[in-house]
Amino acid sequence: MQNLIQKIQTEIASGKLFSDVLKEYPNYFDSLYCGLIAASMQSGTLGVMLNRIADQMESSAAIKKKIQKALSYPLFTLCIASFVTILMLI
């Protein structure tokens, strides 16, 4: 991640736009976020948009974690029930 940040810093220092630099790394930065950043740079609200994007990413990560946690018990129960069923059939 440090290498990525250094690459981004050097490209911005060479004169490229922040949104254009982020578009070069689609594995790390979603095209929607790049578009939002480009629009906010033109309107002058980059700081506000970056905060909103950060909040959105944090809430998405929290929801994913809650879903995984909610599905872990039923999955565990299903595995145990399958094991017991197979054991009884044998």
Which structural traits does this protein have?
90 residues; mainly alpha; elongated
Annotate the secondary structure layout.
Blueprint: H1 2-13, H2 18-23, H3 31-43, H4 46-89
Structure explained in plain terms:
The protein is mainly alpha-helical. It is 83% helix and 0% strand. It has four helices and no strands. The protein has helices spanning 2-13, 18-23, 31-43, 46-89. It is elongated, with a radius of gyration of 22 Å.
How many strands in all?
0
Helicity level, as a percent range? Answer: over 70%
The largest pleated sheet is described as: none
Name the assembly state.
single chain
- Sheet-strand content, in percent, reads under 5%
Taking all Cα atoms into account, the compactness measure Rg is 22 Å
* SSE topology string: HHHH
Please work out how many helical segments DSSP would assign: 4
Mean pLDDT: 93
Principal-axes geometry comes out as: elongated
Low-confidence stretches: none
**What's the N-to-C terminus distance?**
51 Å
SSE-based structural type? mainly alpha
